[in-house]
Design brief:
- Two copies of one chain form a homodimer.
- Chain A has 408 residues and is of the alpha/beta class.
- Helix content of chain A is 37%, strand content 16%.
- Chain A folds into two domains: 206 residues, Rossmann fold (3-Layer(aba) Sandwich), CATH 3.40.50.450; 174 residues, Phosphofructokinase domain (Rossmann fold), CATH 3.40.50.460.
- In chain A, the strands form two sheets. In chain A, strands 3-2-1-4-5-10-11 form a seven-stranded mixed beta sheet, with helices on both faces. A four-stranded parallel beta sheet of chain A has the order 7-8-6-9, sandwiched between helices.
- In chain A, helix 5 packs across helix 6 and helix 9 packs across helix 10.
- Chain A is elongated, with a radius of gyration of 23 Å.
- The N and C termini of chain A lie far apart (88 Å).
- Chains A and B meet through strand 3, helix 4, helix 7, helix 10 and strand 9 of A and strand 2, strand 3, helix 4, helix 7 and helix 10 of B.
């Protein structure tokens, strides 16, 4: 489409949030709204409640009526302030969504979410094109799973990783005080990034997590038991980080032996149950003859815990929202997705680039080989280097020198 | 015993930690150590590793060798820095423990823990008396369960309650974004205080937790299902807080239908498994015909999460440790436990009193009736008033005005 048409396009903007919430997803929302206020080609700033569902039901609010202080308060609040949805639109939904957007003279559409949301944005964009309706459709990246293609990392990951790291810092010390085997199940679906972030908790050489299992390596119950036994012999204790999405050598999720629910995108419902952790704990009790074995499933706290935010994550999430609006208000593109890029080298420097929707949609990104150790049960120093600046500073941990008293 | 003998007693001090860790238990330890350094009647300051176990095995460190900066770093670190233990001493253990204490010329013994630890302190004190060995035995109160008699509240509770409140603040917003039923299982054994702290998360009238079930009221699955259905009809969503220790009308723990392990004190092992939450979620799915039902068991994070501390809790924990040493260095008592007392009235004012070991040992405290609503499924404003200053300030939460756009 001609740059002139794109540049001169004026009309209303509609923004929505989709998929699993994060603690910084409202930063992206507010970043987009505040940026939109600067562009006179954007008239009304509308927000759809619960993503596509709000469009289909015309359940829409006027975000232009929110004051800057209200917007800033929401920006610092976890979870999707507009409400979210897990909905893969049917062909009929797409027609309906497009007709509603047209009815409200929406010429700027923004969808904040993960790869499923990028796909939805792409479908809506195609529907508009098919009907010769000029509309700009942009996807704003978000996911604690950190599994979006084209992105060095995604908004939401840093804060969730900070939660996981601080949880493991404390849990490692808890396990040190009352030794045994502790298994913690972490979110992340098919990607191991969030589970890997548990490694940031380590300070002393004997600190846990001692073993880290991620979906990028086939999980074997036999090897798992042998690994735990080995660590336990060395340290008389063992802290394990396990991804909810670990799979066996055939690609079958280990959790699926215990969990059966799926969401509307056909993804297996891996969260909201303690079944995987409990099953792994039972395995260790039975096969490794260790009596004190416990499991915790960190669950939804990882993505929604109030008051625990990575400052850099919040900043980048805000920037992703604002930059999407800048892209949309330019004359170059009528669609795209925001991607966080990072400069190579020691200094942490990131920026937001536009990428094609199809580059982000559907497929997911996995932990690169250089982040995984040879045994497939830990991360490498390269991962620590990658994740540390995204998560930011962690609490300081003290330990006694512990000068032993000679037996009397 | 004559005040003069007690006052003139000199010798070594030994301190240990027992039971479940908290994020402020090291504040009590460091408070005691720093106070002990001021008293010339205390010679060596020894720390036993893993409570009684360290005494039995003579696994003892010299805390006098730790610098103030090392001590302060440990004070701000979660979980028991000396290690902990869950051990009810046998009569043979008591004889052995006493002989080791005598061998190391321990005249000042401090045990940081809950009611089981108070009982242990009492037993050791009796053994010393039986043998005519002059020794001062003090218990320093600690438990996230907040279930110690004589105490308005206990060190560790405020920080754990802060974790629970912040978790519910975020989880309520997560549930608001993706509506359904969410059940969260909270620690606390037979006392409902920690579960009740979830109520501090509420800001807006429709905020969860919408239902709170505690061990002080008999739990009925039928009433639970009816309650959830009622809330769901009203709000199209429901967030539930459930104590791990809920019991049926016969006093039988609901969790015991799914969990069988017991610890050495004969207490049922209620933590470290997601079974109760999963079972309750299954009940709602089956009986209330609600499709999106999830459960999380907050688990060990509640007592050990790094970097999340109630400032007042940390301060009081430090004071409890220091005051125990002051009590022990006086001429009035050769034993006792520290209890947090609180002035009535609007201004929050607390202090530490000495109480008899037997007043704290064995028996536990429960939520008073005035903190529980008539239906037995929520707390009262009196509880909120009680808990708010102990937990301290919580994160600010923002919400859109949400001006609806008239359907086009």
């Amino acid at each position: 489409m001609a740059a002139k048409i794109l540049k001169q396009l004026t009309g209303n903007m509609l923004i929505a949030q989709s998929g699993g919430p994060t603690v910084v997803i409202n930063q992206s929302l507010v970043g987009a709204v505040l940026e939109a206020k600067k562009h006179k080609e954007i008239k009304k700033i509308l927000g759809s409640l619960h993503g596509l569902k709000g469009i289909l039901e015309e359940n829409i609010i006027d975000l232009g009526k929110e004051s800057t202080s209200e917007l800033e308060a929401v920006a610092n609040t976890p979870s999707s302030a507009l409400g979210s949805v897990r909905k893969k639109p049917t062909p009929e939904d797409c027609v309906k969504v497009f007709s509603v957007l047209q009815k409200y003279n929406v010429r700027f559409f923004f969808y904040i979410g993960g790869n499923d949301s990028a796909e939805t944005t792409h479908i809506i964009n195609e529907e508009a094109k098919k009907n010769g309706y000029v509309m700009k459709c942009f996807h704003i990246c978000k996911t604690i799973d950190n599994d979006l293609k084209e992105n060095d990392h995604t908004p939401g990951f840093g804060s969730a990783a900070k939660f996981v790291a601080q949880a493991f810092m404390g849990d490692n010390l808890d396990n040190r005080a009352l030794p045994g085997v502790k298994i913690n199940v972490i979110m992340g679906r098919g990607a191991g990034f969030l589970t890997a972030a548990s490694a940031l908790a380590r300070i002393y050489p004997d600190d846990g997590p001692h073993l880290i299992y991620i979906p990028e390596r086939a999980f074997s119950l036999e090897k798992f038991v042998a690994d735990v036994k080995g660590v336990f012999e060395k340290y008389k204790r063992c802290v394990v980080a396990v991804s909810e999405g670990i799979v066996d050598e055939t690609g079958e999720p280990i959790a699926s032996k215990f969990i059966s629910e799926v969401d509307s995108h056909g993804n297996k419902q891996l969260s909201g149950s303690g079944a995987l952790g409990d099953a792994l704990a039972k395995e260790i009790k039975g096969k490794a003859q260790i009596s004190r074995v416990r499991s915790d499933t960190f669950g939804y706290l990882q993505r929604s815990f109030a008051g625990l935010v990575s400052a850099i994550d919040a900043k980048e999430a805000r920037l992703a929202g604002a930059t999407a609006v800048k892209f949309a208000c330019g004359g170059k593109f009528d669609n795209g997705s925001t991607a966080i890029k990072r400069a190579p080298g020691k200094t942490y420097k990131t920026w937001i680039e536009r990428t094609e929707l199809r580059n982000v949609a559907k497929e997911t990104r996995h932990m690169p080989d250089e982040f995984i150790n040879a045994a497939g049960n830990d991360v490498t120093p390269a991962f620590i280097k990658y994740a540390t600046p995204i998560v930011g500073p962690l609490p300081k941990i003290g330990r006694f020198k512990g000068v032993k008293v000679t037996k009397a």
